[in-house]
């Protein structure tokens, strides 16, 4: 497996990150089937991630974190996903959100520094709760029906959020809400054990079952004034967010795992109609080669864009189309690669004992992570025909 990483590991630090992530992935792979089958949150996996201090990888060095780059973040995510995709996607939200807050600097220093210290000291988990049934994905621009009202110097928040990944394990939620008095939208930082915070187990999906993206219910949740961490503008679009490349990295990790599974099968399966394993068949070799071309194309695209993001901060404002295109190219390539792997293995790939059927279900979730394909295509078309 490591040989396909040789081109992408550039430094000794990246080598160490990869090795540690690969060792974790090896352990996660042993439990992936069980977590998927039971649609259970992978608490054991996260205990190991916490033990290895992975929750602080993207925390700035000045707060005691490792402050890894976007490129390094993707290397870690892609590797972990080969062991258990649901674990990788989940930890990716936590790590990416911390990276984004640090880069955009929209939060009060005192609030963010305290959060970082708590993550380092107590291994706290954080994720955003933005989606709602009525609004769909936040990328579509819908105004939250969750409301925040001023009440005696505090905020009173009521609402219901969907797709709250890691819901059973989160210590903090970043909740978007519409301020009742002004109609403005803001993000609020809410601790898990605040009175009125509840989790309803609604996650019953085909893929990414271990993310446990259950519903978050907020009933008269009272938080202090400083819980408002960021105001959102409905008119002005936010800055491009490089951290979201953790999504395509995760799905390319699934593709790599499927590709490796197909190669192993081709090397070891020999039907009695042949005098050799099926790896010698031209059609099998063609399918593997086509899968590798898809994989190489997507990975080189993703890592080159990440490298540009890291090396040229002044160019980030103009990188939105490239970031969206990476997600589009990588997730669609991953779907194709898993399909090719299953065609090589044949009917045996459909057995529940085969990891390929899990890869098939998990990889399709990438099509519904942000940004959706239609948004990306619209963005690129708009840029192509712009006269600015």
UniProtKB/TrEMBL annotation:
The keyword Transmembrane helix does not apply. Gene3D superfamilies: Acyl-CoA dehydrogenase/oxidase, N-terminal domain (1.10.540.10), Butyryl-CoA Dehydrogenase, subunit A, domain 2 (2.40.110.10), Butyryl-CoA Dehydrogenase, subunit A, domain 3 (1.20.140.10). Residues 129-221 form the Acyl-CoA oxidase/dehydrogenase middle domain. The keyword Oxidoreductase applies. GO terms for molecular function: acyl-CoA dehydrogenase activity; flavin adenine dinucleotide binding. Residues 11-101 form the Acyl-CoA dehydrogenase/oxidase N-terminal domain. Residues 248-366 form the Acyl-CoA dehydrogenase C-terminal domain. PANTHER family: ACYL-COA DEHYDROGENASE (PTHR43884), ACYL-COA DEHYDROGENASE YDBM-RELATED (PTHR43884:SF25). This is Alkylation response protein AidB-like acyl-CoA dehydrogenase.
């Amino acid at each position: 497996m490591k040989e396909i990483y040789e081109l992408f590991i550039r430094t000794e630090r990246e080598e160490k990150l990869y090795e540690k992530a690969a060792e974790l992935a090896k352990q996660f792979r042993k439990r992936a089937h069980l977590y998927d089958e039971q649609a259970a949150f992978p608490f054991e996996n996260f205990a190991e991630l916490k033990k290895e201090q992975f929750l602080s990888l993207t925390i700035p060095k000045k707060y005691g974190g490792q402050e890894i780059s976007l490129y390094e973040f993707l290397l870690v995510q892609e590797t972990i996903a080969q062991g258990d995709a649901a674990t990788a996607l989940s930890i990716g939200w936590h790590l990416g959100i911390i990276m984004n807050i640090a880069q955009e600097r929209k939060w009060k220093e005192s609030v963010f520094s305290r959060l970082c210290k708590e993550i380092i000291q107590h291994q706290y988990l954080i994720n955003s709760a933005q989606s709602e049934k009525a609004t769909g994905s936040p990328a579509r621009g819908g105004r939250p029906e969750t409301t925040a009202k001023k009440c005696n110097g505090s905020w009173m928040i009521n609402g219901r959020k969907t797709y709250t990944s890691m819901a059973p394990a989160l210590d903090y939620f970043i909740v978007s809400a519409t301020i009742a008095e002004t109609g403005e939208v803001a993000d609020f930082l809410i601790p898990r054990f605040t009175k009125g915070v509840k989790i309803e187990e609604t996650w019953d999906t085909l893929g990414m079952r271990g993310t446990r993206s259950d519903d978050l219910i907020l009933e008269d949740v009272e938080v202090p004034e400083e819980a408002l961490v960021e105001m959102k503008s409905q008119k002005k679009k936010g800055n491009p967010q490089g951290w979201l490349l953790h999504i395509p990295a995760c799905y390319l990790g699934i593709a790599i795992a499927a590709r490796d599974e197909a190669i192993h099968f081709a090397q070891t399966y020999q039907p009695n109609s042949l005098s050799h394993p099926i790896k010698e068949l031209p059609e099998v070799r063609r399918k593997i080669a086509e899968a590798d071309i898809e994989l190489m194309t997507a990975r080189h695209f993703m890592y080159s864009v990440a490298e540009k993001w890291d090396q040229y901060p002044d160019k980030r404002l103009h990188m939105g189309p490239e970031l969206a295109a990476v997600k589009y190219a990588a997730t669609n390539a991953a779907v194709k690669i898993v399909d090719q792997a299953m065609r090589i293995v044949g009917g045996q790939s459909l057995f529940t004992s085969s990891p390929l059927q899990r890869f098939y279900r998990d990889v399709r979730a990438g099509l519904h992570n942000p940004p959706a394909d239609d948004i990306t295509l619209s963005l690129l078309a708009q840029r192509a025909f712009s006269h600015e």
